[in-house]
Amino acid sequence: MLKGKTALVTGSTSGIGLGIAKALAAQGANIVLNGFGDAEGPKAEIVALGVKVAYHGADMSKPAEIEDMMKFAAAQFGAVDILVNNAGIQHVARIENFPVEKWDAIIAINLSSAFHATRLALPAMQAADHGKGWGRIINISSAHGLVGSPEKSAYVAAKHGIVGLTKVTALENATSGVTCNAICPGWVLTPLVQKQVDARAAAGSISNEAAKQQLLGEKEPSLQFTTPEELGALAVFFCSPAGNNVRGVAWNMDGGWVAQ
């Protein structure tokens, strides 16, 4: 379905980003990976799906590096057709104790990076298909883009901001073939969430499995983690012809979290 398209997925060397990159690759899209840590393993997983892959290690807190990444993607494969803004970090503390540098980093990586990548991707998307436009911008928000939780002020603020940015991007491109939507996952067992599970297990002197169930029980009525594969399938739907008129939504995949 996506043969000949290019997808750039930020924060895609593991977790949600890698799951979405693999789902798009399985539909034929060439992939530009981004993120810290080992890139060779993820690259091999994408190549095994029969598409081309490139990697750029841009620090998503630095606008100049984001600009370089977008130029790199265009040089490798032509314009970016599908942009998935996924990169994110977390820090947990009460507002009065929240380190200022952590606030700045979370806003930069979780929110501002999506603005920078979007503004750089839009001109080519708008010019595609003989000026009618074609593009898909998928912003990975969170259940925390729709509701709050204590001790996550920066993350909740950034993820709410992502939902707002999604709506404005969608409205500004509403008469073109460029769509923008947000995915709002509940708990996904990524390395980021595993750290929270580990901390909970250590603090309560309980097993890792008990800590997982405790975490899920507080927020997610289904008592099961959303998987990167499920999120990847939703991203593929947004990129399909069935998603042509899905614009500006914040689609929660959260086991009933925000239904409560």
Structure description:
Helices cover 47% and strands 13% of the residues. It is α/β, with parallel strands linked by helices and 260 residues long. It has two domains: 6-187 and 227-259, NAD(P)-binding Rossmann-like Domain (Rossmann fold), CATH 3.40.50.720; 189-225, no CATH class. Helix 1 (15-26) links the parallel strand 1 and strand 2. Helix 1 packs across helix 8 (228-239), helix 4 runs parallel beside helix 5 and helix 6 packs across helix 7. The radius of gyration is 18 Å and the shape is globular. It starts with 5 loop residues before the first strand and ends in a 7-residue tail after the last strand. The model has no long low-confidence stretch (mean pLDDT 97).
Keywords:
260 residues; globular; 47% helix; 7-stranded parallel beta sheet; alpha/beta; Rossmann fold; 2 domains; 7 strands
SSE layout:
Elements: E1 6-9, H1 15-26, E2 30-34, H2 40-47, E3 53-56, H3 63-77, E4 82-85, H4 100-127, E5 135-140, H5 153-172, E6 178-185, H6 191-204, H7 208-219, H8 228-239, E7 250-253
Parallel strand pairs: 1-2, 1-4, 2-3, 4-5, 5-6, 6-7
Name given to the CATH homologous superfamily of the largest domain: NAD(P)-binding Rossmann-like Domain
**What's the CATH first level of the largest domain?**
Alpha Beta
Numbering strands along the chain, what is their spatial order in the largest sheet?
A: 3-2-1-4-5-6-7
| Structural class based on helices, strands and sheet pairing | alpha/beta
Integer-rounded radius of gyration:
18 Å
pLDDT under 50 segments (min length 5)? none
Number of separate helices: 8
Shape: globular
Q: Looking at CATH, which topology of the largest domain would you report? A: Rossmann fold
Number of strands: 7
Terminus-to-terminus distance: 36 Å
